[in-house]
Design brief:
single chain; alpha+beta; elongated; about 40% strand; three-stranded antiparallel sheet; 1 helix
């Protein structure tokens, strides 16, 4: 999903007036197209905490 978002953003943006950035957040990554007028969310990847089958019910 992340690679698809990066690829789509790279195809959509206008390099003469815009930039594509990969932003790391607390919950994953976002791909944004920045322009003088603001930003457009192109996609990304969100993840949560890993859960192991060895963890007791309710977490550690």
């Amino acid at each position: 999903m992340l690679l698809t978002a990066i690829s789509e953003a790279a195809e959509r943006y206008d390099p003469s007036t815009e930039a594509v950035i990969l932003l790391e957040t607390d919950s994953g990554f976002q791909v944004l197209i920045l322009s003088p007028y603001g930003w457009d969310y192109a996609g990304g990847l969100e993840f949560g905490p890993a859960v192991s089958s060895r963890d007791p019910p309710g977490g550690i």
